[in-house]
Structures are given as structure tokens and as C-alpha cells.
Amino acid sequence: MLTTDFADLISMRIRAEHETLAARWFDRLCDLLPVDARKVFPTNSLLDHVPALILEIAGSVREDATEALAANTTILEKARELGALRHGQEASLHQVLREYQILGGVLAQFVLDEIGALQTPAPPGECVRAVGRIHQAVDVLQQTTVETFVTLYTSTIAASTTVSSSSRAWRRTNGGSLSARCSSA
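The structure corresponding to this sequence follows.
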């Protein structure tokens, strides 16, 4: 298949290399982490989500499909699952944001490498548009993941606060009468 449009070419290359790109992303994360990766990513669940996200990003490079990506319930569900997974793994919001930052960097470097491998130079405007679309897609997925993560985190805090408030109320109600009984005895 002869492709003359740079965005089509990059989209096809990302699709072809999506698992390699996911592994590269994971390797970059491991290089940054001061602890054993198995402690941060105790299961392969995270690694199962990222190749699917990369495939969807590849589709958004082909055309300005950020709005289509934002309306794609299947991929947004994957991003939500990723947010829930990272919350369940007790990741920090900073970690989640950094993971997407690294993903964007890995994909931008991939485009740069592909540009270098071309026999004829790609038009600079097309290169910039392709990288811009990648970053827009990463932003949409990051926003969905972070919204899910923060919603779950906020719910956890609210539940903890409710339990704590209930505990203090119980102590005020029952603790006072217990103290009175102990001092009268």
C-alpha cells in the first residue's frame, strides 16, 4: 500500500508498533521509578490497557479525530478502567499524570524516529499536525483517566471522613456516659 499522506503513514506505523510502543513506555516508567516495577505495577492489568489506548491514538493521527476519540465509548471505558485500576493500586495523581506525559513523549519520539527513516522528507506542517493530534488524543485519554481516578479518590476521602465523623460522634455520645459511670463507681 502506497501512502503519500504523512499522517496516514504515522498512523499505520503506530498501529504496527503499538505493542512495542507500550513496552517502550513501560521501560521508560521503570527507568524513572526508584522501586521495583512489580511493586508499582503488581499485575499486568495496566499493560493490558496501554496497547489498546495506543491503537486508538493511532486512529486519531490519521485525521483530526479528537472529537471522535472523545465520543468513543469503548476507548473511554478503557481509560476509565485505567483510572480505577491505578486508584485501586494506590497510585498518586502525580504518577497517573506522569504516566501519560511519558506516553506522549514516547509517541513523539516514535514520530521523530519515523521522520528520520523516511526516504523523502515529510512536510514540516504535516509532522507538526501529526504530533499535535497525538498530544490531543493523549490529553483526552488522560482527562478521562484522571477524572475517574479523582472521583474514586474523592469518594474514598468522603467515606473515610464519614466513618471518622461517626466515630467521633459515637465517642461523644457514649464516651461521656462511660466516663460518668467510671467516676461514679
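The first helix runs from residue 6 to 16.
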